[in-house]
Amino acid sequence: xxxxxxxxxIPKSDAQTPAAPVVSIRGxxxxxxxxxxxxxxxxxxxxxEIGANEFVSLIGPSGCGKSTLLRLIADLLTPTSxxxxxxxxxxxxxxxxxxxxxxxxxxxxxxxxxxxxxxxLPLEIMGYPPARRAARAREMLQLVELEKFGRHYxxxxxxxxxxxxxxxxxxxxxxxxxxxxxxxxxxxxxxRERMNMELLKIWGKTGGTxxxxxxxxxxxxxxxxxxxVMSPRPGRITKVVDIGLPRPxxxxxxxxxxxxxxxxxxxxxxxxxxxx
Amino acid sequence: xxxxxxxxxxxxxxxxxxxxLRYYLPTIVVALVVLLAWELIVRVFNIRQFLLPKPSSIxxxxxxxxxxxxxKAYNTLxxxxxxxxxxxxxxxxxxxxxxxWVTLRQAMMPFxxxxxxxxxxxxxxxxxxxxxxxxxxxWMAIVAVIVFFPVMINTVRGLTLVDPRALxxxxxxxxxxxxILFALRIPNALPFVFSALRVATVLxxxxxxxxxxxxxxxxxxxxYITQESASFRFQNTWAAILxxxxxxxxxxxxxxxxxxxxxxxxxxxxxxxx
Lengths: 276, 274
Hints:
The complex is a heterodimer of chains A (276) and B (274). Chain A is α/β, with parallel strands linked by helices. Chain A has helices spanning 66-73, 91-96, 115-125, 130-143, 159-171, 189-206, 217-223, 257-275, and strands at residues 23-33, 39-50, 55-59, 81-86, 100-103, 177-181, 209-214, 226-230, 237-242. Chain A is built from 8 helices and 9 strands. Chain A has a 6-stranded mixed sheet with strand order 5-6-7-3-8-9, with helices on both faces. A 3-stranded antiparallel sheet of chain A has the order 2-1-4. Chain A is globular, with a radius of gyration of 18 Å. With 274 residues, chain B is mainly alpha-helical. The chains are: A alpha/beta (276), B mainly alpha (274).
């Protein structure tokens, strides 16, 4: 386990032994058979360990397999070969054990449910009693500062607000791991920067491990302890950049020379990945 | 759904009624103009009663025949509603079963679509033969057969045309098929089901009247229409058609109202943003 100077300010007092990685990926490949004789190597020979309470971003150009990698961790896809462990278990066990929350690029809220009912969805599926569900939804909506919108329908909220509901929903059952697939990719830059701040604030309160897929260099650097740089097809990890920026990160962080240095570092790694 | 509350502030009742009226005003104006033109054309060109009666004579005929018409309409409506409930109930039921078992659905859908293109009304004599020429159930069965396929096919579409990410979300919660059905597939299917049901109301009225034509002598609108037409009392035929249409529209509106109550969240029903 690496010792990182920039672990979150309020780490969760969790049962995770600091030595055990939350996600451990060894020699993982994923090949898509695209009908006929064609096949696409989506990710190749991935090796990565992610520790408890880390915030790790996966970055790379479109089609580099970063979303595929996230879906492999989530057991929404199965690796063609290699070993993948989530909380020390095979991904399928981790999924059945509800070890992670997933946030998609689109908020994917259910139209027929109010905001509060959307947040309660996983709790309903997992059989929480109704009173506890409602209380938990209130708590979560407070966390994402949408407590006044519980009775609204998703279409009555802006894109940024909808995505905050999706985050509240993913965190509702307190999963130790949060998987985010370009959650702010559809938002404008100002909203995105605000959402980045919000996310760090939420993470500061909840703790846990976050794996965050993005194609924005600034976003990856601002949020993460480590940025995993991936090359286009076949998707490979070409470099892992440590981001030494102190926490808590604020709007000033984006103007810090160290921030620019880190952005440059990631950008150069990406360029090398392209060249490879 | 207990915590559902109207998300937007309600405007006053009077203002909403006024807005409603303004919305429907063009339709009302068009209807009045058409009726007036009809009346005038028949009078001016002296078109004979049995070719095209004046709206005023149709209305007069309706007033005169009212109790007979309503009596017969009751029987026809009963066939329509009975068949509607039977046919759409079966359609939804079969859809739920086939949505669960993919192979069964794939095996059955081509037949369902093929059957849907058969002029079902032509089977009426066969159904009367099966269930008895004077058994009210025969009428309902004819309507049910007409209603069944569109409801079934639309429900299957609604249950299966689900956003793949919404399904991935369920998978990430390790939800079983049963929970996915109730929390995702069924709510997703509701708009499809209701648009099929709205079509089915109209189909069931048509089916009931056609069944009347084929059925034995019975106090029904279909039989009334054949009799009055045979005696050249076409104003009465028109009055019967008018009544059946009005009943059909009311039936349609009833289902549309149910739709609003069941899914206030749907795009087609959303109120404009405040």
